[in-house]
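Hi there,

I know you've been waiting on this one. I reran it after we fixed the sequence typo, so this is the corrected version. Both the input and the resulting structure follow.
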Amino acid sequence: MPAPIYTVDAFTARAFAGNPAAVCLLGASPVDDAWMQAVAREMNLSETAFVRKRDDGDFDLRWFTPAVEVDLCGHATLASAHVLWEAGRLPSDRAARFHTRSGLLTAVRVGDDGAIAMDFPAKPATKADAPSGFVEALGVRPIFVGSNRMDYLVEVEDEAAVRAVRPDLRALKAVAARGIIVTARSRSPEFDFVSRFFAPASGVDEDPVTGSAHCCLGPFWGERLGKNKLVGYQASARGGVVGVEVRGARVVLSGSAVTVARGEIIV
């Protein structure tokens, strides 16, 4: 049977900005991991989400880059919740509950502008030694280097340094991590911090807007700035805005989403 598939721009209120994700709604027929990986490679976006409704009314959710399955993804979760409500697969006043490799994640609509808030695990970074060749591959002067189970986090001196990063992606691919976050305080009062995210080892050279990276950025900047509600701007070519509220071991990530394409996977 054909499977409906959508392309959604996440963490943006306008089309062709933010981070595009594909969302594939699976039916009752089983599909294997190789098929999902092939679809993700065909879509060739940083993430393709596969959503299947469970008997209890919740949903199973998995995420694939063009190269690998990942444990946590913010923008494709946002896109998945947006599609379920927009397509009438879930009542608009009901929370989307996703069972994932990172446990239960929930999403709810907030406000009158269609924004979505998601409950995610916090992933704070602890101070770490930079791997050999790491700083040279990034081409930056780090103020702080830390890591969590997924990523390295590198603080640099200012926003201009974040925007100027031009890493050696081939060298960075050898780093044993899902990705590398580069961040600094924002020079704009509209935002608390800026960031970029590079993940060549996961098949994504630069991710436009990385919700899951804010599971690390939220606690990091919350501690430094003495606040638990923050707004981050990911300074990729497409750009995107992520709201973050730190709640102890959890973070609430918020943003908007726009559907830009609908179709079917027929193979």
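Quick highlight: The first strand starts at residue 3 and ends at 10.

Best,
R. S.
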